[in-house]
Amino acid sequence: METARLSSGEIHVILGPMFAGKTTALLRRMISESGNGRSVAVIKSDKDTRYGLDSIVTHDGKKLPCWAMPDLSSFRMKLGTDAYDKLDVIGIDEAQFFEDLYDFCCEAADHDGKTVIVAGLDGDYLRRRFGTVLDILPLADSVTKLTARCELCGKRAFFTLRKTEETQTELIAGSDVYMPVCRQHYVDGQVVIEAARVILDCKKVQSDPYVVEATPVAC
């Protein structure tokens, strides 16, 4: 006799720029699910060590115990098959760092009957797709796009502006490096940052006594 298939699960996605409250929304949902008697577990990337590896922590200091993992595919083995089978809800924070997000969500929701709640950035500081978060939107039962408050004018902020010169996509940091901004101040901010970089490059070239020949820079 064929084994009865588990009831299908759900996938809910929470998106937004930095400081939009994505982790807070995830934490609130997980606490609510736990309060309703459901078994829950939270996973975050072990790349994010800002507040330690044993908790997800919001910017205002609220926290919830979690599993810090290098990938999602090894979560079942790490937790143990029996414990995994008893789980009802799986929360995933900073989901943009997991390359196997799509496959994990398919397996957990479609085949294992889990409710999966995903929180992550949809875009990087250049407003380009970040990781595979956008790939799971076609799988989702619901998608929530959160906004922050523009640090410069107070309007709704949809974007994350990087204030430093680093250019790598993955740069884990807080308000010392990033700020949430509206569309106008994102565009204006990029212009200001680029102008500042040109000025700094000029000063660096002009003050370096060992520079014999350099590419002209418009100063």
TrEMBL record:
<feature type="binding site">
    <location>
        <position position="178"/>
    </location>
    <ligand>
        <name>substrate</name>
    </ligand>
</feature>
<dbReference type="GO" id="GO:0004797">
    <property type="term" value="F:thymidine kinase activity"/>
</dbReference>
<dbReference type="InterPro" id="IPR027417">
    <property type="entry name" value="P-loop_NTPase"/>
</dbReference>
<dbReference type="InterPro" id="IPR001267">
    <property type="entry name" value="Thymidine_kinase"/>
</dbReference>
<keyword id="KW-0237">DNA synthesis</keyword>
<keyword id="KW-0418">Kinase</keyword>
<keyword id="KW-0862">Zinc</keyword>
<keyword id="KW-0808">Transferase</keyword>
<keyword id="KW-0479">Metal-binding</keyword>
<protein>
    <recommendedName>
        <fullName>Thymidine kinase</fullName>
        <ecNumber>2.7.1.21</ecNumber>
    </recommendedName>
</protein>
<dbReference type="GO" id="GO:0006950">
    <property type="term" value="P:response to stress"/>
</dbReference>
<dbReference type="Pfam" id="PF00265">
    <property type="entry name" value="TK"/>
</dbReference>
<dbReference type="GO" id="GO:0042802">
    <property type="term" value="F:identical protein binding"/>
</dbReference>
<keyword id="KW-0547">Nucleotide-binding</keyword>
<feature type="active site" description="Proton acceptor">
    <location>
        <position position="94"/>
    </location>
</feature>
<dbReference type="GO" id="GO:0005524">
    <property type="term" value="F:ATP binding"/>
</dbReference>
<dbReference type="GO" id="GO:0071897">
    <property type="term" value="P:DNA biosynthetic process"/>
</dbReference>
<keyword id="KW-0067">ATP-binding</keyword>
<dbReference type="GO" id="GO:0046872">
    <property type="term" value="F:metal ion binding"/>
</dbReference>
<dbReference type="GO" id="GO:0046104">
    <property type="term" value="P:thymidine metabolic process"/>
</dbReference>
<comment type="similarity">
    <text>Belongs to the thymidine kinase family.</text>
</comment>
<dbReference type="InterPro" id="IPR020633">
    <property type="entry name" value="Thymidine_kinase_CS"/>
</dbReference>
